[in-house]
Amino acid sequence: MKIVVALGGNALEDGAAPTAENQLNVIRETVVHVANLIEAGHEVIIAHGNGPQVGRILIQNHAGRELTPELPLDVADAMSQGLIGYHIQQALDYELKKRKMPKPVVSLITQIVVDKNDAGFTNPTKPIGPFYSEAEAKALASEQGMTVKEDSGRGWRQVVASPIPQKIVELESIKTLVNNGVVVIACGGGGVPVIENDNGMFEGRPAVIDKDFASEKLAEDLNADMLIVLTAVDQVAINFNKPNQENLSHLSITEAQKYVDEGQFAPGSMLPKVQACMKFAASKAGRKALITSLEKAKEAIEGHNGTVIEA
Length: 311
Ligand SMILES: Nc1ncnc2c1ncn2[C@@H]1O[C@H](COP(=O)(O)OP(=O)(O)O)[C@@H](O)[C@H]1O
Ligand SMILES: NC(=O)OP(=O)(O)O
What we know:
Layout: E1 2-7, H1 9-12, H2 20-39, E2 43-48, H3 51-63, H4 73-98, E3 105-107, E4 111-113, E5 126-132, H5 134-144, E6 147-150, E7 156-160, E8 167-168, H6 171-179, E9 183-185, E10 192-196, E11 202-204, H7 211-221, E12 226-231, E13 236-238, E14 246-248, E15 250-252, H8 253-262, H9 270-283, E16 288-293, H10 297-301, E17 307-310
Parallel strand pairs: 1-2, 1-12, 3-9, 4-10, 12-16, 15-17
Antiparallel strand pairs: 4-8, 5-7, 6-7, 10-11, 13-14, 16-17
This protein binds adenosine-5'-diphosphate and phosphoric acid mono(formamide)ester.
The site of adenosine-5'-diphosphate (ADP) has 15 residues, from helix 1 and strand 13.
C-alpha cells in the first residue's frame, strides 16, 4: 500500500530537555516503527508536525535579537523542516541500512499555498512552543504582544495563525522522488505557508499550517491508499478522560461527524486529526485513514488496533 504517515508531537519529543541529542534519540526510536512499515512492503511517505520546535526557534530568535535580526515565522517553519527532516533522514537511513534494506531518504523543504484572506489569519488557533502557566503566558503576551491560549487542558501556549492548506508547491518533485523509490519526508510542520502573487511569485506568510490537514492533502495528491496519523494515544475515544471513556476501533464518516458535532474531540489536538481522516476517507472510494500510536502502528495496520475511519 502507498501510505502517508503523519508523525505527531510525541513521535518527535518525549518531554526531556530538547537538546539536539535528545531530539535525535526520540526520532531514532520513531523511525523503527516507520521502518517496520517499509519492511512490510509498504511505500511510505512521511509528514510531521513542528509545533514545539518552531516555537523554540522563535524563542531563540527573540533572545538573540540584539546580535542578529529576528526572522519571521515562515522562515522559522522552513528551519523546523530542516531540523526535523535532517534528524529523520539520518536516523531512518541508518535503521534501513541496519536491516540490510538501504533506501534513499530525503526531506524536501515544502511550501504550501494558502488563501491570503483565510479566516485563520485573523483568529490565531495553532499552539506552538512550550507550555506555560497562565500567569507566565499572560506576561509574555503583554511583553511581546503574542497571543496565548489554554491548550486542551495541558497548559497555556502561544497561538499563531493556521490557514487551510490549498496547494503543495513541490508536489511534482515529491511524486518524482516517490516514483523512483525514494522515501520522502515532505510537508514538515504542515508546510511553509505561502501565497501566490499575480506574477507567479510565492511569498511566505507568518503562520503554521496544521500538519494533519497538510498530510491529508499530501495523501490525496499522491493518490495514497491510506493516511496514518501517529500520535500519543492508541485509539480515538469518546468521553475522553472521563470514567465512561470508550475507545473506538472503527468510525464511519457519519459516526465521526456525529461525534464532532457533540464536541467529543478537543480542538487543536484530536479534532483536526479526525477531520483530516474524514476528508481523506471521503475523497475516493476505498481510501482508509487510521489514527493510532507509534507503538501500535504495525498491529493497527493489520486491523488489530487503532481507530480506522472509512466511508
Ligand atoms: N477524543 C479523544 N480521543 C483520544 N485522544 C484525545 C481525544 N481528545 C483529545 N485527545 C488528546 O489528543 C492528543 C493528540 O493530540 P496532540 O497531542 O495535539 O497530537 P500530536 O501527536 O499531533 O502532537 C492525545 O494524546 C489526547 O491526549
Ligand atoms: N504544524 C503542526 O501541526 O505541528 P504539531 O503537529 O506539532 O502541532
